[in-house]
Amino acid sequence: MEEKSCPVCDDLGWVLKENGVERCTCQYSDITENIFQRMNIPKRYRNKELSNFTPDDKAGHRLVLLRIEDYINSDRFKEGKGLFLVGPPGVGKTHLAVSILKEFFRRRGIVGLFYDTRSLLFKLKASFDGSASAREILEETVETPLLVLDDLGSERLSDWARDILHYIIINRYNELKPIIITSNVELKSRKIEGDVLENTLEERMGQAIASRLSEICEIIPVKGKDKRSSGLIAEEVGNEKGNR
Q: CA-to-CA distance for 176 and 65, rounded, in angstroms?
C-alpha cells in the first residue's frame, strides 16, 4: 500500500472543520514550506505532526497528547499561558513542540518561532556587538506571538546567557506572550523521599525566573524510552539481517 504523504488530510486535499471543509495546507506546499522557514523549524522536524507522534501507552503519552490538544483548542495562550514539556532526552519533546507551532498556524493562522536555546545564544553571541542583527533577533524572540525555546537548561549558563534568557522571558511574561519550553531538567527544586531535587532550572536560572515560568506554563511530564537510541538499534538490527 502506498504511504500517505499528508497525515492531516490523508491526501484528500480537504480537511473537515466545524463550519464545513477547507483546503488542506498540503495544497499550498510552497507557501507552507516558506512558513516553516519563517518559523525557523529545522528541516529534520518539518515532517513532524501530532498525528505521526507514536504514543507509548506505558509512558502515558495519550494523556500528554490530550493535554496538548486541550491547550491548542483553548484561548489560554491569549493570557500568556504556555507549556513546559519536561523529560529525558529522546522521548519526543521537540517533535511535540514543533507540532504545536504547526497546529497554531493551521487552526489559528498564528506564525510562531522556534529556537533551540543553545543555537539562539550562539547566534546572538556571534553578532552581539550592538549590531542590528542581534537587536533584530532579540526583538523577534520577544515579539513573536508564540515562542518555542527548545532544550532550555541543558547546560550551565554563563552570566551573559542567563541575562539574555531573563530578558526574553521577562519581556514575554510582562506582555502576556506565551512560551512553549522543552527541557531535560525540572523547573523547580522539590523533595523526593526526603532529598532535595537539584540540577533544576531554578538552580540554573534563579528563583525569580523559575517562579514566573511556573506561573505561566503548564508543566507536562513526557516520559518513555529514548526513541533516538531505539531507532539506531532498530536500524543496526535491520542492517545485520540484511548482511546475513
A: 24
Could you tell me which of 68, 69, 65 has the C-alpha nearest to residue 57?
A: 65
Helices (H), the chain: 29-38, 61-73, 93-108, 117-127, 132-143, 159-174, 201-205, 207-216, 227-243
pLDDT for the residue numbered 31: 57
180: left (phi over 0), alpha (psi -120 to 50) or beta: beta
**Numbered ranges of CATH 3.40.50.300 in the chain:** 45-239
Domain 45-239 grouped into CATH 3.40.50.300: yes
Quick one: average pLDDT of 131-136? 81
Residue 146 CB coordination number (10 Å): 22
| Sign, Cα dihedral of 62, 65, 69, 70 | positive
pTM above the 0.85 mark? no
